[in-house]
Amino acid sequence: MTEPTDRTDATRTDDVKHMKWWGWGVEGVGFRHEDKPGFAPFVQKAIGLDLWAGERTERPDFSRLRVPASTASEEFVAVLSGIVGAGNTVVDDLSRVVHTYGKSLRDLVRIRAGEIARSPDVIVYPADEAEVQSIIDASVEADAVIIPFGGGSNIAGSLEPHMDESRVVVSLDLGRLNRVLEIDPDSGLARVQAGALGPDLEAQLNRDGWTMGHFPDSFTHSTLGGWVATRSSGMQSDKYGDIADIVKGLRVVRAGGVLVIRAVPSASTGPSVREMVVGSEGRLGVITEVTVQVHRLPEKRAIHAYFFKNLDHGLAAMQKIAESDVSPSVTRISDAHETAFSLATSKESKGIQKKAQTGLMAYLKRRGWSLDEMCLSFIGFEGDEAHVKRQKSLVDRIVRKHHGIGVGKGPGALYDQKKFDTPYIRDFLLDRGAAGDVSETAGPWSKLRGIHAAVYEAADRAYEKIGHAGWAMSHMSHSYHSGACLYFTFAFVFGDDPLGEYDIVKRAIQQAFIDAGGTISHHHGVGLEHAPWLEEDISTEGVAIMSGLFGAADPGGNFNPRKIVV
Amino acid sequence: MTEPTDRTDATRTDDVKHMKWWGWGVEGVGFRHEDKPGFAPFVQKAIGLDLWAGERTERPDFSRLRVPASTASEEFVAVLSGIVGAGNTVVDDLSRVVHTYGKSLRDLVRIRAGEIARSPDVIVYPADEAEVQSIIDASVEADAVIIPFGGGSNIAGSLEPHMDESRVVVSLDLGRLNRVLEIDPDSGLARVQAGALGPDLEAQLNRDGWTMGHFPDSFTHSTLGGWVATRSSGMQSDKYGDIADIVKGLRVVRAGGVLVIRAVPSASTGPSVREMVVGSEGRLGVITEVTVQVHRLPEKRAIHAYFFKNLDHGLAAMQKIAESDVSPSVTRISDAHETAFSLATSKESKGIQKKAQTGLMAYLKRRGWSLDEMCLSFIGFEGDEAHVKRQKSLVDRIVRKHHGIGVGKGPGALYDQKKFDTPYIRDFLLDRGAAGDVSETAGPWSKLRGIHAAVYEAADRAYEKIGHAGWAMSHMSHSYHSGACLYFTFAFVFGDDPLGEYDIVKRAIQQAFIDAGGTISHHHGVGLEHAPWLEEDISTEGVAIMSGLFGAADPGGNFNPRKIVV
Known about the structure:
The structure is a homodimer.
Chain A: H1 39-47, H2 74-84, E1 89-90, H3 93-98, H4 105-112, E2 122-124, H5 129-141, E3 145-149, E4 169-173, E5 180-184, E6 189-193, H6 198-207, E7 210-211, H7 224-230, H8 237-240, H9 243-246, E8 247-254, E9 257-261, H10 273-277, E10 286-293, E11 295-296, E12 300-308, H11 311-323, E13 330-334, H12 336-344, H13 351-366, E14 375-383, H14 385-401, E15 405-408, H15 410-418, H16 424-430, E16 434-444, H17 445-466, E17 470-479, E18 483-493, H18 498-515, H19 534-553
Helix pairs in contact in A: 2-5, 11-14, 17-18
């Protein structure tokens, strides 16, 4: 066992940031609709909820939670404290609640209802990799369960201990391992500790003129290690790649020692162990360090907005862009429902801006567009001045061929500012008795329209079944040569059994993905939430191979057991 | 068991193409030096071999080979024949020799020496996936070993049965599964059978205006399934990606059934099973079908040649290109040794061409270049006219900044024509008592010069040890944002113990890769040849994870056992 460290350069456990225990983000920040005049009428129409009625559930009260007692023995806690120092091992109820769930709708509903069947028994905050190794060795020796914890933003149920878990559960919080250790400027490779939150990571890189370019919706509250463990994508993945592309090297602490994948640009050294760790959700060990591809901050960066007459035209344009010589940083198109939502969540525009908007809508109507069908698209460009200019002109040509209209950088700048605020809306809705959640898939271009239609149909049937008005909307968020990601948001006012009703809707959507040729998860991982469809997605033999991998790598089932595959 | 098929649309076993048993390519084709006036003096100087002396070993004589008798029982052969039809199961010596080795230098030396410790006992040619399943089920039931066979071009020892293998060895030749089954034009996805050889695959795609864009040096004699099984790269991978990027979907026959990875553009469904199959060299099952990314044939395609004053300038330019907004299809630069080799293997130029060449060399000398240091580079462009023009002008600007000089499309066109002929030189050298082979690595840009120097130093020490003059040369063949592949060719005149001497040189080079921060294989796989360095490359824990995967997926060790990891 290593000596307790007294590292003054490591972040203190007290300074590790966590989201509020009952919802997304930080205390005091939330979504408000009062400054968005279109929002309340929109919600009224979509799911029959009257925001002005002002009925709100009470703010969850921590003192009413019944948190199961920690089963960690004093001896075991002492062993952990011996490794990390006493102040860096905690067993208090608030900490244990914060480390119980991620932030899925299921998690939020349960935490608001005070449903905590099983909490981690002890949370430990190592200062370095050597301490992680000692924690793991001690935990495996004690036959405890180890669940790595980053930002806690997971929405696939990857973090919660199994309710039947009889062993001691250790939540291994990586929050103190949050630094960029080294940048290799020739190769654009940065060695970064796995616990770095998005903003901290980018700030450290930006300081030296670099960016990693990974911006998932959860960016503010998620970590590099979490992105890797769940195969995350970001809104600029069209340019920078999914996390699987960005990760070049890895250090993963396992019971036997440290798995080290050196940062080489490409290798043919058998099945890719790097690609086994990516998406492994803690089952192969604890990721402590990642060597990532970084890029020089672009000279210029712009997100342009376009309108298309309908989704068919818009998707066709996105497909042409993907197969062309153009390489935008963002390609995104909302369907008509989501476009209406976006317009409804805009703040009231005034003066010239309002006139321009009204003028545009009138013009589109004259051209025969139906405002119920039109779709808003964002396309981003990055690089030097000349590159951006040329890319934009090539995209404009494709857009014109598909009868789209460019409306400038205003809406894109707005989108860019508020892109990380969307998750707050779920808490806003829950406060008012409504559920909102997301499900995303990816499929080949040839199947995207079919998937889109199938999901709407499945959601409608599910809403009919639960007997509540429901809403669905969607955008295409990442594109590839062969296809794209479709990201769905759904919402409904729930009755007496919120999770029962949620299950019906969520299941219908996931099954529609599979049946229409999509995958069950494009960038949120599998966890517990998507596991029921894994076999239909990657086949029985695929699951057998994955189970075999986990079983051989972790014969005692100590590493985040029963996630991804049971 | 399925009924013997009578499929008139499947290729007949007699029509499956194989390379000659004793060397590369087809009978009657070989390298000749008589029309290349610079070659003999070059070889004389490099490794002290006098090509005009005309001493040649005798052409290997099949009748002198001692082929171990097949250990397959008549009953077992009858079972296989019952599956595929009698004419599609063969046990003759020539077929068994053809299926014993790949085409590594070690393989060529052994086959010429008549060294065949262990041959496959029976070769079977299934017509479809159902037959592959039946063969596998029957073989596993009989506890036989299954080694999939594509084009037989492997140079890492991935194909040979272990000399101590006591079980019956089945070589499963995919040669009849050689068709493009379906193209999804919207998504650019083609379903292709795994046994398709490069030229057959491209011809079928080209007919409909598509290309897969995968052109390894072995292209003429290697198959799609082989490329996937060994993590191949091609010379246009800068644009089209390595095979790991090109493969979107897979069908792999295993003892339990077919592993099906559906073609979705990206997914976060746990550790990537797709990336476990890529590079698995037969250990996870037999790949029967691959869904690959295809692209429209480009409007324009050009390879331009450039000269750089020395390797440092050239590599710096390649690095700048890789981190810029430019996306060429080929970036390649030969070091000074390989540049000299290229010039020496050119046919005699005449008239105006000769004058131009002489003029260029004189001009470079006047500029202070040393012809012993200058490096030849090829950069390829593809796309529409405007794209190619713009890319070329951006590259030219970077080249100029690094004091490089463009010399037009002539050399590139020549390179493009003869690029698949290089492997024939090994047989040419072996006929004359010299060994030539290749080893390639990849590393970050910051380490490339170090790797290059370390390999030269290691090779020199090895040549000193074996007491023969030796030669090494290198080119950078693929570039990525974070680094590139360095591809080394080495040659020497051997003494009494060709393989013993070869081992000393090859080992020195592989160890230099590791010690200087490169990987042990960029695109040739692991097999037996590179396995000794795997642990140093991907760490002890990495090998443990991979072993665990193989052990769990194939508990009986029936699938190409002891390859990659023992």
